[in-house]
Amino acid sequence: MRSLCVHRPGWHHWRWTSTIPPDYPCKVLNLASGYLRESKSFVLGRLLRDMEAIENRRLSAVEADDYPMKISVFQATFNDRGKSQFSWSRIHLIGIIVTLLQFTLALIPLLVNRSWNVLLITAAGTALVQWTGALPQWSAEKLPHLQRSSQIYAMTSGNGSRDVMVVIGHGRCLDLEALATMSSPRSGRPWEKVEWLSRPGQSDRVEPRFSRRNSSTREAKRGNLWPLQGLPLGFVITQVTFVITCILWLLLLINISASTSVPETWCLLGVGALGMFQNAWLAAAEMEPGLRNIPLKRVEVIKGRKTMDVIMDFHYTYGCGKPLLEEFFPGKLRADEIASWNGDVEQYEERRKEDPERSLSRSEQAERFPKFMYLGQDNLGVVSILSS
Asked: Three-state secondary structure along 245-274?
């Protein structure tokens, strides 16, 4: 999510890249097909990190959080924002407050020495940061093209993780598989959802063009002049912006190095320190999933003392736990576990009852835990979850 940025040393490093790489490991499993994708998305990594922290904090307030595994199940709710729009939050408010504090510091040399230098540097730096942060490429990269997915997804850090996040799409979810492996901004696919950077699709094919499920018939506008010929217009805007801002940042840094009088140097140091502290806070801040355009409603949390018990309970209720079994138990299973997954649960259930620390399975509490049936996709691409 793009927040209001402030002029800060340290921002200069990553502003030249596209969206920054993920800083939290995340795997996305399609529980219908069983396909697994290693996420390359910063958004998905942060979503999993934040939801793990939120759920663990919520559970620890009620009971001891010493379970070896928890599966948190969510339903996707309606997202009232567009394909390339984000919501405003307290993060933006804090960005505005920090910016105002920086300008307050920049006013001190003007009041003391009638020097406009620090104020102009702060204003120019803030304008350049906002200009770069407002580029459409960030929204194009952070949001997938498909945003009406009905699949059931599981997100986890991998084998050994204590937390699994399951999202039931209901036709209202971002396509997390597509988000995990987003196309490069050099290709036209990410720009199709940005209306002013795309146009209705044109094709020279004789046969009629049929749109795929959740897809668009639009195509990205492209540059016509060398050396940017054939590149998406949105990416051209990014390249031109970076060439211009490179020159402007160089001139600004030369101007900063020329400031040697007091209190100009101390005020410039204060402006930079405020920006760095706000940047560090922003990097660690937790965000609700709705602020990442993935609004979710909590359904339940399945937890237990044994990882196998938790996965079996999830599979009993939702009928799609085998991809999790393959992820968390890639080796050989015990004979009673194999029999249980093949439908003969008696031997495994007896061993589970003998251990007082392990709870009763959901199959033994059918009235308390109603079973759902996963029917897969119909001809319209809708995944059905029906209560039995």
From this structure: HHHHHHHHHHHHHCCCCCCHHHHHHHHHHH
What's the Cα-to-Cα distance from 40 to each of 65, 105, 141, 176, 181, rounded to whole Å? 30, 39, 11, 11, 6
**Domain residue spans of the chain:** 1-307
Phi, psi of 199 (to 5 degrees): -145, 165
* Phi, psi (deg, nearest 5) at residue 127: -65, -40
Interatomic CA distance for residues 71 and 152, integer angstroms: 13
C-alpha count within 13 angstroms, C-beta hemisphere, residue 180? 20
The first and second tokens of residue 189, run together, are: 């696919």
Q: Tell me: the pLDDT tens digits for 9-53?
A: 444 444 444 567 788 999 999 998 999 999 998 889 999 999 999
Residue 80's identity, in one-letter code, is D
Which contacts qualify for 84-87: CB closer than 8 Å, 24 or more apart?
84/136, 84/139, 84/140, 84/143, 84/193, 84/194, 85/139, 85/293, 86/1, 86/2, 86/139, 86/291, 86/293, 87/290, 87/291, 87/293
CA-closest candidate to residue 194, choices 47, 85, 290: 85
pLDDT in tens, 142-197: 776 677 888 999 999 999 999 999 999 888 888 899 889 888 888 888 888 888 88
- pTM of the full predicted structure? 0.82
DSSP secondary structure code for residue 292 in this structure: G
Residue 219 and residue 230: Cα distance in Å, rounded?
13
Helix H segments across the chain? Answer: 11-14, 42-60, 90-113, 117-133, 136-142, 176-180, 233-257, 264-284, 307-318, 322-328, 335-341, 346-354
Report the candidate in 107, 102, 118 with the shortest Cα–Cα distance to residue 270.
102
